[in-house]
């Protein structure tokens, strides 16, 4: 289709543009979001995608209704030790079907990790990607290892990187070139490099040209003329609270009680924009990377380590440049006054979340110097503890007010690992515990981000870069509500406030309530749309700026400039708005493109982090298994079902043909609703297999 025809079709509403999502577990199914936020638009089969890959921006044409397909939802069942039954499932989805008419923008890297297969009498080999959403690729034999043709068996378990160069319209197979031999499948480093390459993560070393942008006279100290232009907070009781292993400390806190009973509370953020000059080679590479990528065993930094771990990091007992927001707050958290500006601080102590948590849990305890990290002699431990306790009390008020006003939090379980110091192999894994100390920091970071959003939008209504979160897709919400009603679950999906209350108050208090909440949180997350950065001048309706989960009109990211490029831009906008930095030079189009790019890299970074965690968990199970855990069933297909492993908080698909002792699987549709029964062999062969039917009234455990 010609470009002008596509443009005309989009204007008339005959064509729809959106980001393609391919189902990772059923790769023949793909979706594009509906512009009105209702039901997704469905693409049935590989041909309908017209060679588009996951994440590409595509233009689709909706097919006539007679070509639409009914999809059966893969949501929860109930289970018993001997039997699996699916009842009370949501109604099937009747989705508009479509076909891709043009790939508007290729977002996928066209790179994949996978395996080579030798094809006799061919001058090419077959590359099979690990990700089944990517097509198989014909690669020339000249790209393969020298002895591949004579000893193909030696490479059966070797991972390669392949890049697609061409995909003919009339062929199911693409053409490509081998880029690299990674190593043995299942090993952490080859698998990790494959993941990063596929998601286009730049993990190369920073060039000399980039490093030359950094201060060359080390050790570096703050120039006197710079100190004179800033508010000096070095004598204040300022401290950081971070994970114990963190090395890029980009936020600090301060809190002191005033004579009138109110509090002066400060959030102090590393002034990265001071070191990253706009338009420099360093700025360009930071903008291209857009985010640091956090793997289980290492971090791929957005900025050179001299900046992110030293000059910008708010390390203790060291003078550091910061951008601060300082409020006068009432004990209830009401903002009485607000100040933004460039500052200089000297953090008196590097606290871990556990250190802060111990103070919160034992407010009357006297902490000795040996129980804490090195602390400045200018501030007593008691002073630091009082500041943390006051921040905790204010944070509780702020948090309660947020959720009472309609905020929603869908935190899913996060798996963490303990690693061998030498080999970086996983030695153990556990679900990360989110504590009051985490909530304390979170509340003040949210408050600072909201304050920054209002400041830059007030000054630059056309050029501010903000973060929006649209409401969930109405069709998916309606279906989920019907499902919950059928299951006897008291879940209110009419508003973010109602949903938050339901998940925290209406799921019982038995031993499986937390697991039930986690499963429903996963289900609710599926209906949610992604939060995204945007340029305010590119969206004309101010109502669309709204952040659904936080339930606030304006929000942005200001508090993590060491690891997020958007925050660097926000710092520049703030500095220009306060006349403490260069005037703004960005155009609306530049901010719009920047926001789009940062969205892409944030999505990729999140997926890489998830895949890294999955990889380490697989290695841990292989090395330390088998592991026993109860699991809650989340969904079912005709020959498999998905479970949440309660001990580790991970989702896994269980294939019926891999279950030992399983005698039979019965799957049928009762009307339009599926039902599955698993029949197990008896331990005593003289007895007949028995069948026990369980009709769940609520989510249950196997």
Task: Explain the layout of strands and helices.
Blueprint: H1 3-12, E1 15-19, E2 21-22, E3 29-32, E4 41-44, E5 57-62, E6 69-71, E7 78-79, E8 84-85, E9 93-95, E10 98-105, E11 111-117, E12 124-129, E13 137-140, E14 158-166, E15 174-184, H2 188-198, H3 208-211, H4 224-228, E16 231-232, E17 238-242, E18 251-257, E19 263-270, H5 272-275, H6 281-289, E20 293-294, E21 299-300, H7 305-311, E22 319-329, E23 335-346, E24 350-352, H8 353-361, H9 381-404, E25 415-419, E26 426-431, H10 436-459, E27 465-468, H11 474-486, H12 496-505, H13 513-527, E28 532-535, H14 565-577, H15 588-624, E29 631-636, E30 640-645, E31 650-655, E32 662-670, E33 673-680
Parallel strand pairs: 13-15, 16-23, 17-24
Antiparallel strand pairs: 1-5, 2-3, 3-4, 5-10, 6-9, 7-8, 11-12, 11-14, 12-13, 14-15, 17-18, 18-19, 19-22, 20-21, 22-23, 25-26, 27-28, 29-30, 30-31, 32-33
Helix pairs in contact: 2-15, 9-10, 10-14, 11-13
TL;DR?
This protein has 702 residues and is of the alpha+beta class.
Main features:
single chain, 702 residues, alpha+beta, seven-stranded mixed β-sheet, five-stranded mixed β-barrel, 26% strand, disordered C terminus, exonuclease, 3'-5'-RNA exonuclease activity, nuclease
């Amino acid at each position: 289709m010609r470009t002008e025809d596509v443009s005309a079709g989009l204007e008339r509403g005959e064509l729809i543009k959106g980001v393609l999502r391919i189902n990772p577990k059923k790769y023949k199914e793909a979706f594009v979001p509906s512009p009105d936020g209702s039901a997704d638009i469905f693409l049935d089969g590989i041909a309908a995608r017209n060679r588009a890959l996951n994440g590409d921006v595509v233009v689709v044409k909706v097919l006539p209704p007679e070509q639409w397909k009914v999809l059966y939802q893969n949501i929860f069942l109930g289970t018993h030790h001997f039997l699996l039954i699916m009842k009370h499932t949501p109604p099937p989805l009747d989705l508009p079907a479509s076909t891709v008419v043009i790939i508007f923008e290729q977002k996928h890297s066209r790179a994949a990790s996978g395996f080579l297969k030798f094809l006799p009498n061919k001058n090419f080999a077959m590359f099979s990607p690990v990700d089944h959403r990517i097509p198989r690729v014909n690669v020339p034999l000249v790209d393969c290892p020298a002895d591949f043709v004579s000893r193909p068996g030696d490479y059966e378990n070797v991972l390669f990187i392949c890049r697609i160069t061409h995909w003919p319209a009339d062929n199911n197979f693409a053409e490509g070139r081998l880029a690299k031999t990674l190593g043995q499948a299942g090993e952490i480093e080859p698998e990790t490099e494959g993941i990063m390459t596929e998601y286009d993560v730049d993990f190369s070393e920073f060039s000399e040209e980039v490093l030359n942008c950094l201060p060359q006279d080390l050790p570096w100290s703050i120039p006197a003329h710079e100190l004179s232009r800033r508010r000096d907070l070095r004598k204040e009781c300022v401290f950081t609270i971070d994970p114990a292993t963190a090395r890029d400390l980009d936020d600090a806190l301060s809190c002191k009680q005033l004579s009138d009973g109110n509090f002066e509370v400060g959030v102090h953020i590393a002034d990265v924009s001071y070191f990253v000059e706009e338009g420099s080679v360093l700025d360009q590479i930071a903008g291209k990377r857009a985010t640091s990528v956090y793997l289980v065993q290492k971090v791929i930094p957005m900025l050179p380590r001299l900046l992110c771990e030293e000059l910008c990091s708010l390390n203790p007992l060291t003078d550091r440049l910061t951008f601060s927001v300082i409020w006068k707050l009432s004990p209830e958290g009401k903002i009485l006054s607000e100040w933004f500006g460039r500052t200089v601080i000297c953090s008196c102590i590097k606290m871990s979340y556990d250190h802060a948590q111990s103070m919160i849990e034992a407010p009357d305890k006297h902490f000795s110097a040996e129980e804490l990290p090195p602390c400045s002699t200018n501030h007593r431990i008691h002073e630091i503890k009082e500041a943390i306790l006051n921040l905790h009390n204010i944070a509780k008020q702020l948090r309660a007010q947020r959720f009472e006003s309609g905020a929603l939090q869908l935190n899913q379980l996060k798996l963490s690992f303990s690693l061998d110091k030498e080999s970086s192999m996983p030695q153990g894994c556990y679900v990360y515990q989110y504590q009051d100390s985490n909530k304390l920091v979170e509340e003040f970071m949210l408050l600072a981000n909201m304050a920054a959003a209002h400041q830059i939008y007030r000054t630059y209504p056309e050029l501010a870069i903000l973060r929006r979160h649209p409401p969930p897709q109405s069709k998916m919400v309606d279906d989920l509500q019907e499902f919950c009603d059928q299951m006897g679950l008291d879940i209110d999906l009419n508003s973010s406030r109602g949903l938050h209350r339901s998940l925290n108050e209406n799921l019982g208090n038995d031993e499986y309530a937390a697991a039930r909440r986690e499963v429903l949180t996963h289900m609710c997350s599926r209906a949610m749309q992604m939060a995204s950065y945007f340029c305010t001048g590119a969206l004309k309706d101010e109502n669309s700026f709204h952040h659904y989960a936080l339930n606030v009109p304006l929000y942005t990211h200001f508090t993590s400039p060491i690891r997020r490029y958007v925050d660097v831009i926000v710092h520049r906008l703030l500095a220009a708005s306060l006349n403490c930095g260069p005037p703004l030079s960005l155009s609306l189009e530049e901010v719009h493109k920047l926001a789009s790019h940062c969205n892409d890299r944030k999505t990729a970074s999140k997926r890489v982090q998830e895949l890294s965690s999955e990889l380490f968990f697989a290695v841990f199970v292989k090395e330390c298994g088998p592991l026993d855990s109860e699991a809650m069933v989340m969904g079912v297909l005709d020959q498999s079902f998905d479970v949440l492993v309660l001990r580790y908080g991970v989702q896994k698909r269980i294939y019926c043909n891999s279950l030992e002792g399983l005698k039979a699987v019965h799957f049928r549709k009762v009307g339009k609703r599926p039902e599955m029964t698993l029949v197990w062999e008896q331990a005593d062969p003289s007895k007949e297999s028995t069948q026990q039917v369980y009709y769940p009234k609520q989510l249950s455990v196997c």
